[in-house]
Design brief:
single chain, alpha+beta, four-stranded antiparallel beta sheet, 13 strands, binds uracil
Length: about 240
């Protein structure tokens, strides 16, 4: 990657600040002053220092994104906005979403470039719980709660694993669903299996990660310290 991009990312400086810093001869690459911002560096192997201080490049990035309705979980799409229309791609261009949400689903989406973390959250063997709020076209019933608990035939080889369905007593079309699998269109297909349709769908949580009220649709933020501890837990397999 370019030296100036590296400095911008590492030091969170603007492009013009970075340009000035490099011009002033304050940046060294492998011990030599470098005046050319376009010089290509390898963040993993080159030693890059500013004002005599070695800069360490964060290996991994982690973001919580509140996915809005209408954007797709793809790196590129000619027709629709993608997640990366909202969350700027990092310099290495290696960010991806941890799983996918449908175009019309809103809510919690994690974005990272840490493959192990993502794998551990998505692996069917880990049974990480995902909770959704949905609005159905017809009220949920106690029979639906039991059917979700027992597992549903949604046309796959195997019925779904036990899922938790609860509903608002005042408005039973407002439901909360927790699943521990990640099948294609799973919530919509489970809903159809009990004779209803999903009119609105929002993911509230994935494992220990929850969507907080501070993020409006389309906004994102880096993981907090607490969430970084969760990363360690998930990567260590202790969950
Ligand atoms: N289940 C669905 O049907 N759609 C989603 O986007 C997520 C879960």
């Amino acid at each position: 990657m370019r030296l100036d991009r590296f400095i911008c990312e590492c030091c969170k400086t603007t492009r013009s600040e970075t340009k000035k810093t490099i011009k002033q001869g304050r940046v060294k690459v492998n011990g030599l002053v470098m005046h050319d911002g376009s010089f290509k560096v390898d963040p993993m192997s080159d030693v890059i220092a500013m004002d005599g201080q070695e800069l360490s490049y964060e290996a991994f990035s982690y973001y919580v994104f509140h996915k809005p309705h209408g954007c797709v979980c793809a790196n590129q799409d000619n027709l629709h906005k993608t997640v990366f229309s909202y969350v700027p791609m990092n310099a290495r261009g290696d960010l991806f979403t941890v799983g996918r949400l449908d175009k019309d689903t809103e809510g919690l989406l994690l974005i990272t470039n840490d493959g192990v973390f993502s794998h551990n959250l998505l692996s069917p063997k880990k049974h990480v719980a995902k909770t959704y709020f949905a609005i159905w076209d017809h009220p949920a019933t106690e029979e639906d709660v039991i059917a979700f608990k027992e597992g549903l035939d949604i046309g796959d080889e195997k019925p779904t694993k036990s899922a938790k369905l609860s509903y608002d007593e005042c408005d039973p079309t407002h439901v909360t669903i927790t699943i521990s699998e990640g099948r294609f269109h799973q919530v919509k297909r489970m809903t159809q299996a009990v004779g209803k349709e999903v009119c609105y769908l929002k993911r509230l949580s994935m494992g220990k990660f929850t969507l907080d009220d501070t993020l409006a649709p389309g906004e994102y933020r880096s993981f907090t310290e607490r969430e970084m501890n969760y990363v360690t837990e998930y990567k260590g397999g202790h969950f």
